[in-house]
Design brief:
Helix content is about 5%, strand content about 35%. It is mostly beta strands and about 230 residues long. The longest helix is centred in the first third of the chain and has 8 residues. It starts with about 35 loop residues before the first helix and ends with a strand.
């Protein structure tokens, strides 16, 4: 039996990013994560077409799209590619190898590292997102943590039913499908997979795969999502 496939197109509308080429030929969606650094090295040309308020810290390898606002106190280390009409708010910390889709919000005390966000993502309050992929219009409520490293440091696997899929990655947070929502203070354990339009209740510590159009009220308690 062949291993389960977590193809990018099953989770992401690749029309909702200017960087769809990164996913060409990719079998498992998380394969782009170790490729982000080289992609940015090859394609990023530093420029600022946005509005800089006050004196945020912005590294040399940063692209800022039109009408994006960078507020005082933000720290964009880079390499980072930030789309149009984004808000990078006070206290946001964008570390190395980050792609932020147009229309996204990265808010106060949020840290993003080696991650890919499609258009319209909301990461607005006290969030950590490490080594992860967020689809279009994903919303992480206040305090959501996307953990990317197992306590023992082992490589991360994704379990699907009776099958285990090795990612080959020591650091991998989550693959979150378009329009998924994660409630306040929830934690996504390394290797979490959330289907499109799925919903995780506040305070849930999630591990594993949540199907599309489902609600997780607790680990192992999954309901269809209506409306």
């Amino acid at each position: 039996m062949s291993a389960p496939v977590f193809a990018p197109a099953d989770y992401l509308d690749l029309k909702q990013t200017d960087h769809a080429a990164l996913f060409y030929g990719v079998n498992q969606a998380w394969e782009i994560l170790p490729a982000l650094a080289q992609y940015l090295k090859d394609h990023l040309v530093a420029a600022n077409f946005g509005e800089i308020i006050g004196d945020p810290i912005i590294g040399d390898e940063v692209y800022i799209g039109r009408d994006t606002v960078i507020e005082p106190g933000a720290y964009i280390k880079g390499p980072a590619w930030i789309g149009e009409n984004c808000q990078i708010r006070h206290g946001a910390y964008l570390r190395e190898n980050v792609v932020i889709g147009s229309g996204s919000v990265i808010g106060n005390s949020c840290e993003i590292k080696n991650s890919f966000l499609c258009n319209g993502c909301q990461v607005p309050h006290f969030n950590y997102v490490g080594d992860s992929i967020l689809g279009a219009r994903v919303h992480l409520a206040a305090g959501v943590i996307v953990s990317n490293l197992k306590l023992n440091g082992d490589a991360i696997s994704v379990r699907s039913g009776e099958e285990t899929v090795a990612t080959g990655l020591r650091k991998f947070g989550a693959l979150i499908g378009d329009e998924a929502e994660v409630g306040c203070n929830a934690v996504l354990n390394p290797g979490s997979i959330l289907g499109r339009r799925s919903l995780i209740y506040p305070g849930v510590v999630w591990r594993g795969i949540l199907p599309a159009n489902s609600i997780a009220k607790a680990v192992g308690v999954v309901h269809p999502r209506h409306g």
